[in-house]
Amino acid sequence: MKRSSSSPKPPRAGKGGRDGTDRARGRHDRRALLVLSGAVAVLLCAAAAFRALIVERPAEAVGGPYALVDDHGHPVTERSFQGHYTLLYFGYTHCLDVCPLTLATVTAALDRLGERGRQVTPVFISVDPVRDTPARVHAYVASFSPRIVGLTGDPQDIRRVAAEFHVTVRPRQMTAATAGNYQIDHSSMLFLMDGTNHLVSMFPVDSSADEIATRLRNLLPGG
After folding, report:
1. Is residue 186 marked as binding?
2. Running DSSP on this structure, what letter comes out for residue 172?
3. CA-CA to 167 of 20 to 30 Å: which in 15, 102, 190, 211?
């Protein structure tokens, strides 16, 4: 029987052919690209979310002069802290949750810094001057740390300094039953001011003591 002298035919394009292999490779590459693009998008979103946690404002837009009374009844202005860093927090002594937690966190953060933490004076400014007398503020801040300076003042002076720092203050609606025991809604942020009362940075109050200590270590002189 005579053998055919014709050359074998090349494989037909299809699942087993070169074209099919190329198409499969192309689909694999596209899937890999989509996965990579998705991963990049997730990372970008995460980075944006992280930046949103560390809220920064233009330094010139935050802070200003103030005249208040400290927890010993002595007059205090922003110049009283000249040459010293201050970490300011606005709150009130009847606050049930965020205020005591924040002051405890600030105390722990400064303790973590050791001697370098002494460059910073923590300052608590009451947004409830009607109830927060100097004596009450003193007892409150002393329960967290003797280093915390408590400030209060006349209602108009408190409103003025709160406005300087863009802190909103809204007493909740009072009734006969809640009179004298009302709560106050207020902005919660930590403000790091330098020795000339200029804003250095702001910290969200949900920052941990370790996070605050780490950032302060990088921001303070000698870091």
Report:
1. yes
2. P
3. 211
DSSP string, 68-92: EEETTS-EEEGGGGTTSEEEEEEE-
Q: Is residue 168 pLDDT above 60, yes or no? A: yes
Please give the model's pTM, rounded to 2 decimal places.
Answer: 0.72
Domain boundaries, given as residue ranges, for the chain: 11-53, 59-219
List the alpha helices (DSSP H) in the chain.
18-53, 98-112, 134-142, 155-164, 209-219
Cβ(191)–Cβ(202) below 8 Å: yes
Element housing 86 (H / E): strand 85-91
Mean pLDDT value of segment 37-52: 38
Burial environment of residue 58 by CB neighbours within 10 A (0 to 12, 13 to 18, 19 or more): exposed
pLDDT for 45? 42
45 is in an annotated binding site: no
